[in-house]
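S2.1 Query sequence (PTS sugar transporter subunit IIA)
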Amino acid sequence: MSLLPDLLAPERILLDVAAASKQALYEVVGQRLAETLKVSAKTITASLLAREKLGSTGLGQGVAIPHGRIKGLKQATGCFLRLKEPISFGAPDNQPVSLVFVLLVPEQATELHLRILSELASRLGDKAFRDQLAQLADPVAIHRLFIHAPD
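Output structure tokens follow.
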């Protein structure tokens, strides 16, 4: 059973985002999710930057899955962003990233966190899936793609 339907809502799908760096990207995410999650934008940004310092969350093939743990967060949540211009992410293939799925989990969500990351990596590793993400112009259509993609 997919874990993604509970993570992502159309209002957390951002298309053609302008961000010149990882930090700028994480600030966009922080601003977008702060009110909904009842967590400060700075806390979200800092969590993502802290995880990135441990090693790049760029997977390769133009994809990254930045993730962070947030104290006080009640449940895992996600935000998908398609960047207007790809940015360097330190991915293993040295390719810039334009498809980003940000995952935020509660501080103690170890097993759940790993299961979600595994599912995301599997989906985003599929070229046909990535091609659709790159082409769809509507957040609702992208949401449907994430929800209905095969497990």
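The chain has a mean pLDDT of 91. Strands lie at 13-17, 58-60, 63-64, 67-70, 77-87, 97-106.
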